[in-house]
């Protein structure tokens, strides 16, 4: 409840139970939440980052060091912390990697802004300084980027993305599969990542993962009488169900004679048979249906030697279109031989305990499948997350054609450029730009800390090395400052560009909040909660 006093009279403008934080209290709480969230994922950054084990209310376990996965699985209540989770999700959607980087940069920007607020610098001034710094950072990033899109570069990009994750021991063969898959689905300089289907199967080592020149469907044939393998497959894709439609409205059929019942059943059978005949007339020997297929229709299809699958996901139907060249028929009446796709073979195969249907040997397929293996369920899941990140960065590199050195090199180069830029700006914004530059150094600093190195020495050495080259980064395995371009440790420019931009915008938005009003249905975040301020469960 909020009251405004005037001439001794109270005016109630908010419902009872509403809580409110004003001015510095609101800013302090939001900044604390952002800092705490960044600290939660910070230890996962880099090749020597550690993993988190997350257990949900049902007892399901997730073991990962993927930033966005950690944040999605955690039950976060604080509104400002939720805004940083959105930063990670956006990073994941736009690039596929760099989620942890984006969150820790945002957290560090908030931390540095707290120091400026203590100096009585207005939040709007800090936000304006951050905005100018972010724009300048993009310019500096462009100047230190490297033009390269050859297969070797793409492979190094994929290997860098998978370093420090569960796939590290098999990162080289996996990188080859990923680059091949991305190049196969690339069309006119753009990559639709949805056309790369990932099937995760446990029960073998990561090295046994493979690429399929076509599509893998996680379903088997409908009937054991259907052929298990079809050579020179002519594939029909159907949205229409092969079954008698039930009436949408309540209806009753009154039968007065047993012969009428028999005629009714025979009519249904005739309708189903006519539907199957349409498929046969088209010349198809493989059928994928997005809807249901009647048991009687299955019998007729099996008798004609047609391999059929029902209730195929829409995404799989779209991949089959891209891979085989088939056109989806929305009505059986419209199905002709011109709508059929072509594949060298379609066959059913059991891998571990899963029955899969392989559509292989397609002509220039624009959809492919990866079968990822792992010794256990949790290993396989982490392999999938790592490969998904690698696909994202390879696709981004192929589309943009620009990469940057890894190992914290771009952050140090941008910080150096921003410090010089700050000297050209008058007024208090200069301090905000300087704070932005220092905040970016959290990336190499964290890389050093996670590797057990002295972060101060690492930063000093990096700054000195950048007087001669913008490609000098931290080799966390040796502790030395190395030319990352020569070492093959490179990342897409888009990862850094998106991380800096989204982190800056989130920090600016949080800084401009000076009033938090929580309704009585939403309890105000409690600073006293263990672990995370603002009601987040003390998981870490």
TrEMBL record:
Membership in a protein family: Belongs to the TCP-1 chaperonin family.
Species assigned in the record: Methanobacterium lacus (strain AL-21)
Keywords: ATP-binding, Chaperone, Nucleotide-binding
Residue ranges of coiled coil: none
Gene Ontology CC terms, in alphabetical order: cytoplasm; protein-containing complex
Ranges for region Disordered: 521-540
InterPro entries named in the record: Chaperone_TCP-1, Chaperonin_TCP-1_CS, Cpn60/GroEL/TCP-1, GroEL-like_apical_dom_sf, GROEL-like_equatorial_sf, TCP-1-like_intermed_sf, TCP-1_chaperonin, thermosome_alpha
Protein name (database record): Thermosome
Gene Ontology molecular function, alphabetical: ATP binding; ATP hydrolysis activity; ATP-dependent protein folding chaperone; unfolded protein binding
Function field: Molecular chaperone; binds unfolded polypeptides in vitro, and has a weak ATPase activity.
NCBIfam families the UniProt entry points to: thermosome_alpha, thermosome_arch, thermosome_beta
Pfam family, one: Cpn60_TCP1
Highest taxon of source: Archaea
């Amino acid at each position: 409840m909020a009251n405004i006093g005037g001439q001794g009279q109270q005016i109630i403008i908010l419902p009872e139970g509403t809580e409110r934080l004003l001015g510095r209290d609101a800013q302090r709480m939001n900044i604390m939440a952002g800092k705490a969230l960044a600290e939660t994922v910070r230890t996962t950054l880099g090749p020597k980052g550690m993993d988190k084990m997350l257990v949900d209310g049902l007892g399901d376990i997730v073991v990962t060091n993927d930033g966005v996965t950690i944040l999605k699985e955690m039950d976060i209540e604080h509104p400002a912390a939720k805004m940083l989770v959105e930063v990670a999700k956006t990073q994941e959607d736009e690039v596929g990697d760099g989620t942890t980087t984006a969150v820790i940069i945002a957290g560090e920007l908030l931390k540095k802004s707290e120091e400026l607020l203590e100096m009585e610098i207005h939040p709007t001034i800090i936000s304006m300084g951050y905005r100018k710094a972010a724009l300048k950072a993009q310019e500096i990033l462009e100047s230190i980027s490297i033009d390269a899109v050859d297969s070797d570069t793409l492979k190094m990009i994929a290997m860098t993305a998978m370093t420090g994750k569960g796939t590290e021991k098999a990162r080289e063969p996996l990188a080859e599969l990923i680059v091949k898959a991305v190049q196969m689905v690339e069309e006119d300089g753009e990559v639709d990542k949805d056309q790369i289907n990932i099937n995760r199967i446990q029960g073998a080592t990561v090295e046994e993962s493979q690429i399929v020149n076509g599509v893998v469907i996680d379903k088997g044939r409908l009937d054991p009488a259907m052929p298990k393998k079809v050579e020179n497959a002519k594939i029909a894709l159907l949205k229409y169900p092969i079954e008698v439609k039930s009436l949408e409205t309540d209806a009753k059929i009154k039968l007065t004679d047993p012969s009428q019942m028999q005629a009714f059943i025979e009519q249904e059978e005739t309708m189903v048979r006519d539907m199957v005949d349409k498929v046969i007339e088209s010349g198809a020997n493989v059928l994928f249906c997005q809807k249901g297929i009647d048991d009687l229709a299955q019998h007729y299809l099996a008798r004609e030697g047609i391999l059929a699958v029902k209730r195929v996901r829409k995404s799989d139907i779209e991949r089959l279109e891209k891979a085989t060249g088939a056109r989806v028929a929305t009505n059986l009446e419209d199905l002709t031989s011109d709508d059929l796709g072509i594949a060298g073979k379609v066959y059913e195969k059991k891998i571990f305990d899963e029955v899969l249907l392989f559509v292989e040997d397609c002509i220039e397929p624009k959809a492919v499948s990866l079968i990822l293996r792992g010794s256990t369920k949790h290993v396989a899941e982490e392999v999938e997350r790592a490969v998904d990140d690698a696909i994202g960065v390879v696709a981004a590199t192929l589309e943009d054609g620009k990469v940057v050195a890894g190992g914290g090199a771009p952050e140090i180069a941008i910080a150096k450029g921003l410090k010089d830029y700050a000297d050209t700006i008058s007024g208090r914004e200069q301090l905000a730009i300087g704070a932005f530059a220092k905040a970016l150094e959290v990336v190499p600093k964290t890389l050093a800390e996670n590797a057990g190195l002295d972060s101060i020495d690492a930063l000093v050495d990096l700054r000195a090395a950048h007087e001669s080259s913008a490609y000098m980064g931290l080799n966390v395995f040796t502790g030395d400052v190395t030319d990352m371009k020569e070492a093959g440790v490179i990342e897409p420019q888009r990862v850094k560009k998106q991380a800096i931009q989204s982190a800056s915008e989130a920090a600016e938005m949080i800084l401009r909040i000076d009033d938090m009003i929580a309704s009585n249905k939403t309890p105000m975040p409690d600073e006293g909660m263990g672990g995370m301020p603002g009601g987040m469960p003390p998981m870490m």
